[in-house]
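FIELD: query
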Amino acid sequence: MDFLEKDLEDIICENIIDNYNELYVRGFNIPQPYLVKRQFKIGNYGIADVVLLHRVPEGDEHYLYISVIELKKKTIDYKSLLQVYRYGRGIEKWLGYNNKYTYYIKHIIIGKHVEVNDDFVFLLSHLNNLKIFTYKYDIEGMYFKENMGDYIKLNEGFNGED
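FIELD: result
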């Protein structure tokens, strides 16, 4: 059986509310949402794989915390990064036209591995509203690992290195 992007979407969407603690223990450490939207159309900005809504109290106020998730069956690359930020921008524009909420958008990309042979990885440690997760799916189930984006050149060229 081939593992599909839809399978990854199913695992997250079907468990993020009712089995939140299990996903959290398996490495998917994001706030628990109260609403999950799959294949969410964001005007002409595109269709996000998953959008999660969270309400977070801050003093006497509540604000809306939105997680925009892009899923990749295999490789996370610069196109994935651009795609998830396009969706986030679309949500920002929509919320701007419907200015009822104070909100915060978190961009999340989940894939099998990150394409490290491309310079886009050096952006990842500078984007505060981005989380990257890689996943492992085997006989023991699904596990996630947050990728901290601490990328360096294998040979940095310091101290006499070529």
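FIELD: remark
The beta strands are 35-41, 47-58, 61-71, 75-76, 103-111, 113-114, 130-138, 141-147.
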